[in-house]
Amino acid sequence: MHTDLVAALDIGGTKIAGALVDGRGRILVRAQRATPAREDGDTVMGAVEEVLAELRASALWSGATAVGIGSAGPVDASAGTVSPVNVPGWRAYPLVERVRAATGGLPVELIGDGVAITAAEHWQGAARGHDNALCMVVSTGVGGGLVLGGRLHPGPTGNAGHIGHISVDLDGDPCPCGARGCVERIASGPNIARRALEGGWRPGPDGDTSAAAVAAAARAGDPVALASFERAAQALAAGIAATATLVEIDIAVIGGGVGKAGEILFTPLRAALRNYATLSFVQRLTVAPAQTGTDAGLVGAAAAVLTRTPATTVAGVGG
């Protein structure tokens, strides 16, 4: 019998992953479906229900005490709804209520995917042992989450720490979110690639125009590719320094596809951070790559349930 067994869902525009996770963060059972992102909301929910049905068919399911959900956002944990940008059929969709119904009434905890990865990194990854941390996911978009005072800090709606939409360039490019000069508009993978192409970088014979291809070119010494990564690093450094100045974090963890670029990103990032994080209380700030890998969303969704305070177990219930 596993104590502290919880169900976890990691919901994104490409896949819906589910797992039964124990109190040590081990995945014991897993299930997955492709996200029917172009379909209507109930069809998407059908895929979630299939994942849950597969988990419920396990002999271990009877030990599951709650469900943690990390979802692409925006999410609204206070209302129990999700409106993922890349799943148009879900707008203010009552995901918590539907998951509770599909699991026989288990308590459900909803957080954004950036917060979920933060929970995973704090529990088992690069932020372990740090009481005050920012974790970032830098890929197609830029998300994040905060650990403050040793606890996950999702905020009232589950979106706190969304560093991708801090403005770091007052007169910068318009961002799809409506603001200007956001970290995401400069540092996300597609924007790194866009800037390199605009600067004259050309892909190799395979035609690959991804940020990973730009990173490979930068490693080979291409000046335009290097400059695009340096600009991304500068934007990340400004956002990280602003966050550290505001809430006194001592580590920033960077995951996602762009985070895998290695020193092409981290060397200019550390250099830029010295220029922005200048006050005495932020000078010891370190930057590290994420460690939890592809299961971070599931492990983090489980962590959000396993580490919460008893009073917040279910609205209106608990100690």
Automatic annotation (TrEMBL):
PROSITE patterns from the UniProt entry: ROK
Domain of life: Bacteria
Gene3D superfamilies: 3.30.420.40
Pfam families to which the protein is assigned, alphabetical: ROK
Family matches, as InterPro entries: ATPase_NBD, ROK, ROK_cs
Coiled-coil residue windows: none
Family designation: Belongs to the ROK (NagC/XylR) family.
Protein name according to UniProt: Glucokinase
